[in-house]
Amino acid sequence: MWKTAFQRSSFAFALLATVHCGPGKENPPGDTGGGACTSNDKALRLGKLVNPEDGRVLDKAIVVIHEDRISYVGTDEKQIPCGASVLDWTAYTGLPGLVDAHVHFTYQTDRAPGTLPWTRAPWLMNNNPYKLLDLARGAALATLKTGVTTAIDKGGSDFILNPLRAEIRSGKTPGPRMYNSIGGISNQKYPGAIPPDALKGWVQLQVLRGADLVKVWADGCSDKTLDCVPTFTFDELKLLVDTSHQEGLPIAIHAYHEDTARLAIMAGPDSIEHPEGLDVVDCGNMIDRGTIYVPTVDHNRYYKDNLVFFGYAPEMEAKFDAYIKKNLASVTQAHLMGVKIAMGSDAVFTGFGENTQELAWFVKAGMTPLEALRAATLHGAESIGAAHEVGKVAVGYYADIIAVEGDPLADINVVLQGVRKVMMGGRVAEL
Q: Which residues form a coiled coil (predicted)?
């Protein structure tokens, strides 16, 4: 009788081990035979998985995650490691985590009565930096909830951006993976020619402050008129670009006006931010030099919708509309010619949480939803030199995956409004 009971209990234990070890994993590596195995790996099940590179859709996809990286993508149940935790996202379609190629996390206000955001932000920076950091944490979380798992901050204070980047990487603070330019380079000192050593020193200072990229403001623009004036010559921009690349950093150049943009494009940066008025020659030069265009169309819509918040005069609404029209025309031209375009929100203040609205403008400019998704993943990753680790759901890449409800290849609004799950580096965010 004792022998029969022992045989039954052994059979039940073996069956339990088989269940825990997954299909076909009765004797996994490290298991001495008969004992239940454990693993820290995760397996993610998706109803569909879209590849923005070519539009392929994988049904009943399985993604296996080891630590913060992807170790398997396919449909083979046997690839689920023994003891791995399994996440059921089969009701949704999976996409790579999105890349916002232009944000400013340190542009924040606590909305103290009687203050305007553009004056309150520097006040906080100088008087209450802990509060500013806390506001930046909130902006990072709001960004993550839109499905953005990688954000490129193009201008902010190192004493806020560097701690925030570290907190997110450690898992202490929820937010997108950050690539930071620190402060950035602008010419507020030299009315004439800038000494070459000064230009090189400005780039080297970015390296020493822990920047992931260099940001240059190539023109100065008025918030009241939207008029812009170039602040660097072509030779100066070219030296900044060459020095950044020699230091191993990508470089982004802010250039609103078409004349400034023309100089910036010829200098060969990794990305150019904002410009309108681009023509076929400009687009051809961007293609030849591998420069990625970050139009930031939607941020002017944001300003137009928040005139009172910013203290803008009512007549600024028409100016923002006019700029949007020119900017959208440039996006249309660039897209038709095959320029690589990346999604950048230029999010500031209360704009975090609206990071992906740029995709709707891309579709208005003639992109298919697939092309817009490519701009929000592959091209953003490429602009920062991270195309080998973000922007795809592929083996070796960071486990940055979002789940949307609906078909993102049929309707881009599915991405704008239908994000239901977000994973960044293998960690699932609470939405």
A: none
Domain boundaries, the chain: 39-96+392-430, 98-390
Q: Whose CA is closest to 96, among 298, 334, 375?
A: 375
**Nearest partner of 35 among 22, 17, 19, judged by Cα:** 17
Say if CB 110 and CB 55 are below 8 A apart. Answer: no
For position 25, what pLDDT does the model report?
39
Q: How far apart are the first and last CA of the chain?
A: 55
The CATH number that domain 39-96+392-430 falls under is 2.30.40.10
Q: Of 178, 96, 101, 98, which is closest to residue 344 (Cα–Cα)?
A: 101
Q: Which long-range contacts (CB under 8 A, 24 or more apart) does 328-331 make?
A: 328/297, 328/361, 328/364, 328/365, 329/276, 330/275, 330/276, 330/277, 330/278, 330/295, 331/293, 331/295, 331/297, 331/361, 331/362, 331/365
Q: Name the band, by pLDDT with cuts 50, 70 and 90, for residue 229.
A: confident
**Residue 187 DSSP code:** -
Q: What does the buried/exposed string (b/e) look like for 125-159 if buried means 16 or more CB atoms within 10 Å of the residue's CB? A: beeeeeebbebbbebbbbbbbbbbbbbbbbbbbbe
Per-residue pLDDT tens over the stretch 95-118: 999 999 999 999 999 999 999 999
Helix (H) or strand (E) holding 369: helix 369-375
